[in-house]
Amino acid sequence: MDKFSGQKRAGAYLFPPTEPFDARMLDVGDGHQIYVEQCGNPEGAPVVILHGGPGGGCSPAMRRYFDPAQWRVILFDQRGCGRSRPHAEIENNTTWHLVADIERIRAALDIEKWAVFGGSWGATLSLIYAETHPGAVAFLALRGVFLSMQRELDWFYGGGAGHFWPEQWQRFKSLVPEAEHGDLIAAYNRRLFSGDKMLEARFARAWAAWENVLASVSSDGRAGEAPADYARAFARLENHYFTNKGFVEEGQILRDLPRIAHIPGVIVQGRYDMICPPRSAYELSQGWTAGKLHIVRAAGHALSEPGISAELVRVMKDVGAARGRYGI
After folding, report:
1. Of 76, 90, 259, 307, whose CB has the highest number of CB atoms within 10 Å?
2. Class of 10-149+247-326 per CATH?
3. Would you list the DSSP string of 269-312?
């Protein structure tokens, strides 16, 4: 049981572990190769999973949100992270490179239309991809919505979330001189890209810890120490994207919602999400009439929150059973 909410742990709602029936490295140009895998039913409804971060990488647990008899599940590590190479690389690594990569995967796997499943940054990328290629998307499943807007960055890196987690916020900002506290994304950028591997690792772990400790509503305030290689890719890529405002114009995702007005979908949002507060999910739902907002009461940001896992599994099972209605 979850000690905070009394719910079952997330794993109790998931399907049993499964192994890929196909795994490959796909050359996407620009010196990048990305890891792609497929699992489940080769004849099932195709769904592509877009992981968070940027820089988080995909995990075996992500396969388990889909009935393996219903779904053909495609996972990949975005440029620079996970098993994709080169590791932690920011050159030729923008939102628009990732959108093009998703289309390369779809073409390589000979898929006409698929469902798109993404959380946090993965929700951002899902929306931008769908708005760019609306004819390729049959259904959108989004979790913990981030719209790549300045107010969202200000909340998380400007002190908003720190009002709820003051000890962890003090730890995060105290690593740089007070004179640099006005722009912590820029302050960390100078150190994450300093060329000093030990300094980069130290600040990468601090960057990752600040986010990880706030991910779950049941967090006790201790994030643990992420492995250096993972933290370096996660922090460098996330900082690179946030420094560049996600490579989109302010408010672009909401502005372009008419392009996906016809695409059905669901938004699953934790009420107490400290990383991506519910305001963005609500605003998205107001502009995207085909998207239904589900607020999970006792949940934060993480995919592994029990209530969020339960709702996503339920939704995807229903969509898989009615795949003909969605054209997949």
Report:
1. 76
2. alpha beta
3. EETT-SSS-HHHHHHHHHH-TTEEEEEETT--S-TT-HHHHHHH
For residue 280, give the nearest of 169, 160, 107 by alpha carbon: 160
Residue ranges per structural domain of the chain:
10-149+247-326, 153-245
The sign of the CA dihedral 99, 100, 101, 107 is positive
Q: Are 176 and 206 in contact (CB under 8 A)?
A: no
What's the CA gap between 39 and 35, in Å, rounded?
14
Of 134, 66, 77, 68, residue with least CA distance to 105 = 77
Nearest residue to 183 via CA among 210, 159, 214: 159
Instruction: Name the phi and psi angles at 36, rounded to 5.
Output: -130, 135
Cα separation, 247 vs 257, whole angstroms: 17
Give tens-digit pLDDT for 201-246: 999 999 999 999 999 999 998 877 888 899 999 999 999 999 999 9
Catalytic machinery residues: 120, 273, 301
